[in-house]
Amino acid sequence: MLVNHAGLGRVRFHDLRHTFASLALLREAKPKVISEAPRHASVAFTMDTYSHIISGMQEDMMALLDEVLPSGVARSVAMSAKLGCSPG
């Protein structure tokens, strides 16, 4: 078996797929490309399955929004989302 030949012991092929997708997300690879490698049915499945491993995704998105939106808008949107209401 391939994993035995590689000296990985009791690692299942599925474990390798999971590791690949996790590491690719951590390296900020494009989600579409990541979802195609393990032949997931959709990008949404990939992101639903693996995005929990990436700490700081929300903070990174807020920082990006802060760069492109007028001052304070991104924080207002984030607070509204936390409270479950629409901004405005």
- The number of helical elements comes to 6
Low-confidence stretches: none
Please give the share of residues in helix. Answer: 55-70%
Mean pLDDT: 77
Radius of gyration: 18 Å
Distance between the termini: 58 Å
How would you explain this protein's 3D organization?
It is a single chain. By secondary structure, the protein is mainly α. The protein has two domains: 1-54; 55-88, no CATH class. The chain has helices at 2-5, 13-26, 31-36, 43-50, 57-68, 73-83. Helix 5 packs antiparallel against helix 6. The longest helix has 14 residues, at 13-26. The radius of gyration is 18 Å and the shape is elongated. The model has no long low-confidence stretch (mean pLDDT 77).
SSE order and pairing:
Blueprint: H1 2-5, H2 13-26, H3 31-36, H4 43-50, H5 57-68, H6 73-83
Helix pairs in contact: 5-6
Features:
88 residues, mainly alpha, elongated
Short description:
The chain is an all-alpha fold.
